[in-house]
Each structure stands twice: as structure tokens, then as C-alpha cells.
Amino acid sequence: MTARRSTTPAPVPATEPPEQAPRGPEWGFVGPDGLRTGWSVLFAYGLFYFFRMVIGTIFFAAHLVDEQNDLTAVSMLTLELVPFLAMLAAGVILAVVEQRNILDFNLRGPRRASHFVSGLAAGFIALSALIGVLDLCGWVHFGPPALTGVQILRFAALWGCAFLLVGCVEEGLFRGYLQFTLTRGLNFWWALAAEAALCLYLALQPGNRGAWGVYAVALMGLLPCLALHQRGAPRSGFWQAAWVTSTFFGLIHTFNRDENWIGVFAAASMGVVFCVSVRVTGSAWWAIGCHAAWDWTETYFYGTADSGLPARGHLFTTSPAGNPLLSGGADGPEGSVLVFGAMLLLLAVLLLFYVPQKPEAAQSYSVAD
User: Fold this and answer.
1) Which of 158, 223, 259, 337 could disulfide-link 308, Cβ–Cβ 3.0 to 4.6 Å?
2) What secondary structure does DSSP assign to 239-286, as a single string?
3) Is 249:268 a contact under the CB 8 Å cutoff?
């Protein structure tokens, strides 16, 4: 005979849950991904403005820039060197502090050169399509060319370098570092708080005609981001960050002279398009190229005002005509409601040509997501 074995499982000794390590004073500053998002952003922009002040002072003392900016190609190029160098200096320090490569700030994706070139082409074509519609409908009038001979190439190159710096600075700050950093640490409620703070800031600024453009984009992103939050979408942080960065991008355009609310809303909406380009291409290089080409085409090639800022030394001469709601008026083409057609064209290009590459592009977001 064999001994009958009990089928009753032996009792498992109770174990106490592991004790959590006490939170030290550094908990409010450092999280699992390093320096917490809010402090990272404050530190980054503090560094940027510090270096901008230092470099700007040096340039001013060397008489490279002055208080009166007449918006010529040379003055624009020199002026934009200040924030560009400040951004590079801040970026190097941030990369060391966060133990990253500076390319990690949404600049590392695949086929960077081809994306940059295709962005250049897309920006030129989209703005040209907008000008073509305005001309066809009589809302912009062309005058004689303002440049001849070697001046055409000279000013084309100068404005090209100037707006390349503009594209690098604005995309580097917004779709680069800020978008990357907010993606890794922003939830819906923090995004909503940031939107409220931006809108409150503008509400306290009297006489700001472009503020309604910021309010509009803040409301436009509310329901989509709330829906992503309620669904618990795994990558909702990217779009919540895009909501904040695009609203902030619109806000800085309220400081431009002769900017209207449509132009501000258009700038913020273009920020959304650029964020889409980061998602589907894996980097900000397409956005840099498109941004630079859009401004170059608007300012130099067609000679229109750019966000309410007219420039000197342009190829063609154009002037708005008719209803400013359609022509853009003093704001330029970006102040026309038709600008949203050009943005839809850019968005269609991104969705048609780059969405099939999304799985590959998403690999570059392994840290941010």
C-alpha cells in the first residue's frame, strides 16, 4: 500500500508588502526620466534667454545689431544669429544635463536630408498656391519686379540664410526641445492648466487684437485631447504636447506688428501641421524646411508681408486688395482665411506620402513615448 497524500495545499506564509523608499526633497525635481518636465522647460528657456541676452549684448556692442530693425536681408540674418547661437548653447548644456545627444530632441529621425528638401518644396508650393488663388480672385495685385540682374541671386541667398535660421530657431524651440520634453511628461490636466495660463496671460494684455486666434486654437484642441485622455490612448502625450506647443507658437505671433487674429490662429494651426510632420517623419527636419521655404517665398519671392511684417529687398512686389478677410490686408497672406486651404494641402501631403512610414518613424520616439 502507498501512503495517501493530502491534496490540501500547504499554507503560504504571509509576506508583508515591500516598504516604499521615503521620498526625499529631490522627488519634486527628479522623476524616473530625469529632471521633471516642468523644471526641464523652465531650465531650458531660462538658459535660452540668458544666452540670448549675453550674445545680443555682444552683438549690440559690436554694432552688428541695433534697436531699429528695418527688416532688410542683412539685418534679419544678423538678428536671427542671436537666438540661433543662444539655442545651440542652451541645447548643448541641456544635452549634457539630461545625458542625451542634442539630436534626441526630435532631430534624429530617418532620412533627415530628404525630409528637409521635401519640406522646402512643400513650403514653396503651398504658399505659391495661396498667392495664385489670391491673384486669380483679385485679392492681391502684382507690381513690376523690384530686383534685377545679380541682385536677384544675392538677395535670394541672403533671405534664404536668414529664414533658414528662423526655421531652425522656431522649430528647434517648439517642435524640437519643447515638443520632445512635454511628450515625455505631460498629461491632459497639466496640458489644460498650461492652456489656461496662456489664455489668462493674453487676457491680461490690453489691446491685443490677435488674442482670439490663441483662444480659438486652445478650444480647438480641447475636445480631441480630452477624448484621447478618456480613452487612455498610449501616445496621447504627444498630441497633448502638440496642443500646448502650437498654442504657445500662436501666442508669440501676437507680438508682431499688424498681426490679426486670423494670422495668429493660422500660425498656431501651422504649428499643429508641423507637429503632425514630426509624428509621421520621425523628426523636425521636414518642418524646418517647410517653415524656412514658406517665409522665404512669402517675404522675398512674392514680396508680401509676413505675419504683419513687410520687408525690403524682395523679388516681386505685391499689394493686398479688397476685403482684408480674404486678402489678408496688412497681415499678408497668412491673415487671409484662404491660408487654411494651403495648410490642408500641406497636411494632405504629409498624410499621403509619409503615413506609410509611420512604424519606422515611431521607433525614434521610444524615449519620448
Assistant:
1) 259
2) HHHHHHHHHHHHHHGGGSTT--HHHHHHHHHHHHHHHHHHHHHSSSHH
3) yes
d(CA 16, CA 171): 51
pLDDT in tens, 74-86: 989 999 999 999 9
- The answer to whether 82 and 52 have CB atoms below 8 angstroms apart is yes
Q: CA of 217: how far to CAs of 44, 202, 234, 244, in Å?
A: 25, 13, 23, 10
Looking at every residue in the chain, the average pLDDT score rounds to 86
Residue reference for cell 521655404: 293
Average pLDDT, stretch 103-130?
95
Give the number of residues written for the chain.
Answer: 369
243: buried, middle or exposed (CB in 10 Å: 19+, 13-18, 0-12)? buried
**Which residues, 6+ apart, have CB-to-CB distance to 284 below 8 Å?**
106, 107, 171, 172, 175, 176, 179, 274, 277, 278
The C-alpha angle 70, 74, 80, rounded to 5 degrees, equals 85
Q: Would you call 89 exposed, middle or buried from its count of C-beta atoms within 10 A (0-12, 13-18, 19+)?
A: middle
309 forms bridges with which residues in the sheet?
306
Tens digit of each residue's pLDDT (9 = 90 or more) over 150-190: 999 999 999 999 999 999 999 999 999 999 999 988 899 99
Confirm if 224 and 273 have CB atoms less than 8 A apart. no
Start-to-end C-alpha separation, the chain: 64
Kindly report the backbone phi and psi dihedral angles of residue 8, in degrees, each rounded to the nearest multiple of 5, phi listed first: -80, 125
> Quick one: residue 148, left, alpha or beta (phi over 0 = left, psi -120 to 50 = alpha)?
beta
Q: At what angle do helices 261-281 and 211-231 cross, to 10 degrees?
A: 40
Place of cell 521636414: 286
Is the pLDDT at 28 greater than 70, yes or no?
Answer: no
Backbone angles phi, psi at 10, to 5 degrees: -65, 145
- Measured torsion, CA atoms of residues 256, 259, 265, 266, in degrees rounded to the nearest 10: -90
C-alpha–C-alpha distance, residues 354 and 361, integer Å: 9
